[in-house]
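With this grant's support, we have settled on a layout for protein records. An illustrative entry appears below exactly as we store it:
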Amino acid sequence: MPTLLLVRHGRSTANSAGVLAGWTPGVDLDETGRAQAEALVGRLAQVPLALALSSPLERCRQTLAPLLAARPELGEPTVDERLGECHYGEWTGRPLAELAKEPLWRTVQDHASAAAFPGGETLRGLSHRTVAAAREWDEKIAAEHGPDAVWIACTHGDVIKAIVADALGLHLDHFQRISVDPCTVTAIRYTPLRPFLLRLGDTGELGGLRPKSAEHRPGAAGTSTADSGDAVVGGSTGMD
C-alpha cells in the first residue's frame, strides 16, 4: 500500500503568539514557518510524490507552496475539508494560557473522547472525519498509482495526532501522548492487516522513505512487507 506523509504546517503567527487559531481566517506562517516550508523541499528531494493534499486553511497551503513550486507536475494541492483543523468553537482565537484555566482543559488532556468544544465539535468527531479521509485517500491512491506510491497531506497537529493514534491502535484518550511539532513529517504505511508508523514528527532528511524495490522488502512467502502486512522480524535493515 502507499506511504502517507503527514506534514504539520510550519509555525504560524498564532503559534508564536500562543493563540488557538482553529479556523480563524488569515493566520499565516511566521518567518520561522516560511523557512521551515522552504527547507521541506530539500528534505523531500529524493522522495517521489503521487499527490499533494491540503487542509483548506492558509497556513497549510503556504507550507506546501515551495514544495509544489519545485514539483510543477503535482499542480495545485487537492483540498479536503476533512483534513481541516478541529472546530474549537468558542475556544477559537483565545490564548492557550487562558484556556488552560478552563474546566474543559483537563477533559481535553485526560479524557479526549469525552471532550466537546462549546459551539464546536467533539474530539471524537475530529478523529472520525480525519481517519476516514486518510484511509479513503490511501485506497484511492493505491488504485490509481500503485502500492509503492508516496503521497503527502499538509494538515494540523490534532489531526495528525488522531490519525497516528488510530494507526497505533491507541484509544483516543491517549492521543495527547503524541507530540507533533510544526513542519515535522509523520509517515504511515497502511497494509491489509495493520498500519506501520514509519516516522513520527521527523525533522530531518527523508530520503529513506522513497519506495524500495521488492527484493529489499522481504515478507511472508517471498512477498513484500507492503503486500503481506508482516513486520520484519528483528527490525528493518533500512536498505534501499
About this structure: The longest strand covers residues 195-202. Helices lie at 13-17, 31-43, 58-70, 96-99, 103-110, 123-145, 157-168, 225-228.
